[in-house]
């Protein structure tokens, strides 16, 4: 889905299939034909669809009649984007999820993840109310495998980061039309951060792999980017490991910790410099908001990362 918003009221099954395939990737959508004792169809299929691109993700809300969504092996192509689909169910009846031999019944208030690079099935009952987020695996980086590893397993959203994400998604689904420009980008950043928090959250002392620890560190850093004291030593201490261990963990991700931290800060500084709402703030103030207080370092970093200066970025709008 390249941009804009999509709204379809009283959609047919075919329209729902087209919308779902456009927002995510080719999908097959079918609906059961409920018949009365006289052989007449009991009720026509209906579905209300609201969808939009929010930052780096596609977000959709589907409400209406029960239906079956299938991603078959035949529909999967090497040219399809490698997406993860995260669904939040608010339906009165459970939904049946199936992927790779893992099956679950999602109750109201549960998340379920699907890996769009593999076949899956999702059956929802009448009066369904489902939020769906489609996000590229590359946007989640090393987190993608952690999230995809939960495919077809229900994740209750009744506490912690999962509850925060669920509340955010419900609000987002009600205000998709009202997001544009910088507001949309900010909401997209928040959505990605909350997804990472919700799906990489583990109990203290229960982190089983280096990947899970890297995920937790990244979530922590993104939540504290404005802190100028954020560095290898402070982050390592916050997670009970040595600076050497932290360097080793990030070496396996393909990008050193310091380079990753600098890139995340620069991306947000660039976004703010392109935002007309930030015109009242100096470049130094924008940079300080994201933990960078050396104007000379900022100038060199922006030129190296984006091939441009802060002044030129503000002129590009």
Question: SSE order in H/E notation?
Answer: EHEEEEEEEEEEHHEHHHHHHHHH
Order of strands across the biggest sheet? Answer: 1-3-4-11-6-9-12
Average pLDDT number: 85
Give a short account of the largest sheet: 7 strands, antiparallel
Percent helix, as a range, is 40-55%
What's the gyration radius in Å? 22 Å
The CA-CA distance between the termini, in Å, is 24 Å
Overall geometry: globular
Got a strand count? 12
Number of continuous helical runs? 12
Can you put this structure into words, describing what you see?
It is built from twelve helices and twelve strands. The protein is an alpha+beta fold and 317 residues long.
Brief characterization of the structure:
With 317 residues, the protein is an alpha+beta fold. It contains twelve helices and twelve strands.
Helix and strand layout, with pairings?
Blueprint: E1 5-8, H1 13-23, E2 28-30, E3 47-54, E4 57-64, E5 67-71, E6 83-89, E7 95-99, E8 102-106, E9 110-115, E10 120-124, E11 128-136, H2 137-140, H3 143-148, E12 154-156, H4 160-174, H5 181-200, H6 210-223, H7 232-238, H8 243-251, H9 257-273, H10 283-289, H11 295-306, H12 310-315
Antiparallel strand pairs: 1-3, 2-5, 3-4, 4-11, 5-10, 6-9, 6-11, 7-8, 7-10, 9-12
Helix pairs in contact: 4-5, 5-6, 7-8, 9-10, 9-11
């Amino acid at each position: 889905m390249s941009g804009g918003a999509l709204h379809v009221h009283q959609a047919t099954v075919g329209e729902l299939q087209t919308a779902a395939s456009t927002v995510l990737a080719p999908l097959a959508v079918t609906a059961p034909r409920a018949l009365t004792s006289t052989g007449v169809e009991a009720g026509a299929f209906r579905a209300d669809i609201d969808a939009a691109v929010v930052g780096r993700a596609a977000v959709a809300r589907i409400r209406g009649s029960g239906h079956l969504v299938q991603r078959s092996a035949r529909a999967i192509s090497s040219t399809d984007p490698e997406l993860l689909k995260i669904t939040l169910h608010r339906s009165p009846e459970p939904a049946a999820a199936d992927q790779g031999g893992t099956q679950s019944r999602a109750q109201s208030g549960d998340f379920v993840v699907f890996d769009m690079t593999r076949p899956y099935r999702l059956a929802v009952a009448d009066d369904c109310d489902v939020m769906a987020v489609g996000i590229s695996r590359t946007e989640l980086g090393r987190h993608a495998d952690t999230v995809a590893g939960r495919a077809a397993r229900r994740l209750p959203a009744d506490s912690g980061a999962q509850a925060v994400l669920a509340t955010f998604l419900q609000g987002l689904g009600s205000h998709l039309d009202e997001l544009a420009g910088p507001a949309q980008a900010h909401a997209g950043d928040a959505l990605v951060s909350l997804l990472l928090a919700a799906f990489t959250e583990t109990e203290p002392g229960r982190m089983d792999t280096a990947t899970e620890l890297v995920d937790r560190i990244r979530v922590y850093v993104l939540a504290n980017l404005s802190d100028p004291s954020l560095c290898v030593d402070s982050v390592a201490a916050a997670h009970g490991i040595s600076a050497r261990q932290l360097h080793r963990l990030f070496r396996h991700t393909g990008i050193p910790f310091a380079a990753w931290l600098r890139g995340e800060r620069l991306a947000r500084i660039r976004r703010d410099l392109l935002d007309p709402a930030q015109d009242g703030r100096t470049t130094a103030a924008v940079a300080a908001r994201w933990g960078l207080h050396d104007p000379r370092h900022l100038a060199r970093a922006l030129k190296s990362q984006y091939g441009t200066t802060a002044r030129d970025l503000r002129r590009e709008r």
